[in-house]
Design a protein that fits this description.
The protein has 16 helices and 15 strands. By secondary structure, it is α/β, with parallel strands linked by helices.
C-alpha cells in the first residue's frame, strides 16, 4: 500500500491528536460535525483532519444514521482490526505480554514464568516472549514496544538504574530489545506502567487526580493528573518504596534503614512469617501445623502465597498482612495530605490476591490522614489485575499512534 502523504503544521498536529482523542472517548457522539464544534474548527478543516486519520487507517466511518431532518450524521470510530500495540511487564517472577487494539482491548496475552533469575536470563526470557507475540499480531503492529520493569528506570536510555528489591544495577533493557527486534521501545517502571493502564482503561478513567500504588517485591507509585504521568527530573517520581517511615526500622535494599519497602514489600511479608516461626520455635512451645511452615521449609514461600492464605482465613498470614498494612496506611495518608487525590488504586501482586490489602490500607489511612482530604478520596483495588502493567506498557504505543502509523507507512515507501 502506498504511503499517505501528510504534511502538518504544529497547530494542525495538535488538532489531529485532539480529534483522535474525541473519537476514542466520545463513541456515541463522534461525527465530523461534532469534531468541528468541539475543536472550534470549520467543517472543511475538520473533514480534512478526519480524511488524514482515515488515510492512516486509524479511523473509520460507520453506516450513516439520520437524526431527524437534515443530512445524515456519519459516526466515527477507531479501527479495531488493523493496528495493534504490544506491551510487556515483569511481575511476581513472570513476564506478562499483551497485544491490544486501538481501544486498549486485549486481543492476545502470554505469560512466561521465570522463577528467580539474573539480569541475563531476565533479558533472554523477555526477548523470547516478544518473539512469540510478534508472531501473533493479527494485523499491523504500531512500531514501538512498551516494557515495564522493576526498579528505577531511565526511560531515555532504557536502562534499569537500580532495582534494590532484586539487587540489580545498570541493567540495559531497551538496547537489546531494539537490537533483537529492530523496533524502538520505551522502558519504564512496571508500577507506573500499571498506573497508566488504570488511568486510561481501568477504574481511574475520567479521574482527574489519581495515585496508583503497586506492592510487590518493590513498592512504587504512579502520580497521574488528567491522564499525564508525573515522571520527575530523572524518571524517579513515584519511588515511594524509599519513603522514610522509621529511621530505626529494618535495612532496605537501597542501603538505608526504615524505608517503606523494608516494612511492607512482598519480601518484608515473607520475613514477618519467618520471624513468627522462629519466635514460636524459640519459645519451646508446640508449633501448630500451618501450610505456611511447610512451604517455608521447602524454600517456596512468597508474599503472594501469604496474601492468598490470608484471604482463606489463615490467622498467621492475616496478622502479618495487617502489620505491613500499617506502614502502607501511613504512606497513603501522607500522600493524601500532600497531593489531595480523588482516588488511590492499590495494585501489584499482593493486591491482586484479593481485596484484603486495600481494605487494611483504607482503614489505616482513615485514622491517620487529615479529615478534609480523606473525605474526598476513594481507595480501591486495581480492577485490571496482573495484566495492568503489560496493558500500560502497550498504551505507550497507543498514546503515539498517529506518528507511529505514519512511520509504518513511511518505512514502506
Amino acid at each position: 500500500m502506498a504511503s499517505p502523504e501528510l504534511y502538518w503544521t504544529s497547530p494542525c498536529e495538535s488538532n489531529i491528536e485532539a480529534a483522535l482523542t474525541l473519537i476514542e472517548q466520545e463513541q456515541s457522539k463522534a461525527t465530523r460535525a461534532f469534531i468541528a464544534k468541539q475543536l472550534a474548527l470549520s467543517r472543511t478543516t475538520a473533514s480534512s483532519i478526519i480524511s488524514q486519520l482515515m488515510q492512516l487507517e486509524l479511523v473509520k466511518e460507520l453506516d450513516s444514521s439520520i437524526n431527524g431532518r437534515g443530512r445524515p450524521a456519519i459516526p466515527l470510530r477507531l479501527t479495531e482490526s488493523i493496528w495493534y500495540a504490544l506491551g510487556a511487564s515483569y511481575h511476581s517472577e513472570t513476564w506478562n505480554f499483551l497485544l491490544s487494539d486501538l481501544y486498549g482491548k486485549p486481543v492476545a496475552t502470554h505469560r512466561v514464568p521465570t522463577g528467580p533469575i539474573n539480569p541475563s536470563r531476565f533479558i533472554a526470557t523477555l526477548l523470547e516472549g516478544i518473539e512469540s507475540m510478534l508472531d501473533r499480531v493479527p494485523g499491523r503492529l504500531l512500531p514501538l514496544i512498551g516494557i515495564g520493569t522493576p526498579g528505577l528506570v531511565n526511560s531515555t536510555t532504557g536502562v534499569i538504574s537500580r532495582a534494590d528489591d532484586l539487587g540489580w544495577k545498570k541493567v540495559a533493557v531497551g538496547e537489546p530489545v531494539t537490537k533483537h527486534t529492530g523496533l524502538p521501545c520505551i522502558v519504564m517502571n512496571r508500577h507506573r506502567a500499571a498506573g497508566l493502564a488504570e488511568a486510561r482503561y481501568g477504574s481511574g478513567r475520567g479521574v482527574k487526580n489519581l495515585i496508583y500504588i503497586g506492592v510487590e517485591t518493590g513498592i512504587s507509585a504512579a502520580f497521574i493528573n488528567d491522564g499525564i504521568l508525573l515522571e520527575g527530573a530523572d524518571y524517579s517520581a513515584g519511588e515511594i518504596g524509599h519513603m522514610l517511615i522509621d529511621p530505626n526500622g529494618p535495612l532496605c535494599g537501597c542501603g538505608r534503614y526504615g524505608c517503606l519497602q523494608a516494612f511492607s514489600s512482598s519480601q518484608a511479608l515473607v520475613r514477618l512469617v519467618e520471624e513468627r516461626y522462629r519466635s514460636l520455635k524459640s519459645l519451646g512451645e508446640r508449633v501448630e501445623p500451618n501450610i505456611l511452615w511447610d512451604v517455608l521449609s521447602e524454600g517456596r514461600l512468597t508474599g503472594v502465597f501469604i496474601a492468598h492464605e490470608a484471604h482463606k482465613g489463615n490467622e498467621i498470614a492475616l496478622s502479618c498482612m495487617k502489620k505491613i498494612a500499617v506502614q502502607l496506611g501511613i504512606a497513603s495518608s501522607n500522600l493524601i495530605n500532600i497531593l489531595n487525590p480523588q482516588k488511590i488504586i492499590i495494585g501489584g501482586g499482593l493486591s491482586n490476591a484479593g481485596p484484603l490489602l486495600t481494605e487494611l490500607i483504607r482503614s489505616e489511612a482513615s485514622s491517620r490522614a487529615m479529615e478534609s482530604p480523606f473525605s474526598t478520596v476513594n481507595i480501591e483495588q486495581s480492577i485490571l489485575g496482573s495484566w495492568s502493567g503489560a496493558l500500560g506498557a502497550a498504551s505507550l504505543a497507543l498514546k503515539r499512534k498517529i506518528p507511529l502509523a505514519q512511520r509504518w507507512f513511511d518505512s514502506r515507501k
